[in-house]
Amino acid sequence: MAQLDTRAKLAILADAAKYDASCASSGTVKRSSEGSKAIGSTEGMGICHAYAPDGRCISLLKILLTNSCIFDCHYCINRKSSNVRRARFSAQEVVQLTLAFYRRNYIEGLFLSSGIIRSPNYTMEQLVEVARSLREDHDFRGYIHLKTIPDADPELVAQAGLFADRVSINVELPTDRGLQRLAPEKSSERIAGAMGELKGAIEEGHDARKRFKSAPRFAPAGQSTQMIVGADSASDGEIVTRAAGLYDRFALRRVYYSAFSPIPDASAVLPLQRPPLMREHRLYQSDWLMRFYGFKPAEVVEAADASGMLPLDIDPKLAWALKARDQFPVDVNRAPKEALLRVPGLGTKAVKAILASRRWRALRLDDIGRLTVSVAKVRPFIVTVDWRPTALTDTIDLKTRVAPKVEQMELF
């Protein structure tokens, strides 16, 4: 490998990291360096492409330790057979970059992943060393997210949890058959085993903190994972079902979806075109329905068509409502929270406001209109003091009435 300066390495390895979507986080503990010689702090809220309550954009230094890899996964631009320019940071180079960017107020933390070099254990040792050095040698209190390696020794992964706020292991693809076809060197059993060990370590850490205040925190922001969408034949229904299983089995904080992007010198087994980005968006919406709106996986799958794909022209909540019209209309002045959360156009904040307001007075349609972007979308599914949809809920062309209008954007 030709000798590259730090700037050249950064250009290569920051660009290579853009394919990893799971760099946002929330739920970690708050740390501050105020009144000490430490450096950095965490806000305990969304990081990377997120905004703090005061409007500040919070971001991470998102890089790979190296884009060299001993594996040859078909969908990966950094696979062994790929003809890309390679680069590699040393652990101390990453440490110094993180500190330098933080001191310049460019970042508030680090997201670090890597290709596999020499062996999984060797690579994991390098990743852990970066986090250890930042925490112990420099007393860095900012956010750290480490991508761990399923094949690495569990002791190394456990060390990662002692220094990182969040740890994650990618399941790569939604189905076992897809993984066997596109990444035969990886094993779904090993991935699941590593995620299970992480879950156990996180739970043990939480229990230890309850008993002993001096016990070290272990991955306080939990673990997450990512799956690639559109590289194999998995339907949205299969993806939603797999994600729900991962949440239940491993107590994940997040499942991230990354739309497959065609890569240079691609394998012949890969699709020639990337899936619509709207498909990725619909999967995130379905994920939200399960996590915050009380939907069961089977109910989200009901919103899909016969082939298991979610509609792209309307959101999955509206698609479900159109198929479950017997659940509507809902009386906003009487219905429980669970029923209100299923009304298309009503978000969690709107439902909270409805529950608080109706304690003092009966709500009218205008009141609901002030809580939602489009009252036209809500009207067929609710009853208020001055509104009842009568036959509107069962109208054949209801979808065209409530679906967002497609408009041609102006060029200038």
Automatic annotation (TrEMBL):
Keywords per UniProt: Iron, Iron-sulfur, Metal-binding, S-adenosyl-L-methionine
Database matches in Pfam families: Radical_SAM
Keyword Phosphoprotein: no
Needed cofactors: [4Fe-4S] cluster
The keyword tRNA processing appears for this protein: no
Domain Elp3/MiaA/NifB-like radical SAM core, chain residue ranges per copy: 59-286
NCBIfam families, sorted: rSAM_link_UDG (TIGR03916)
Protein name (database record): Putative DNA modification/repair radical SAM protein
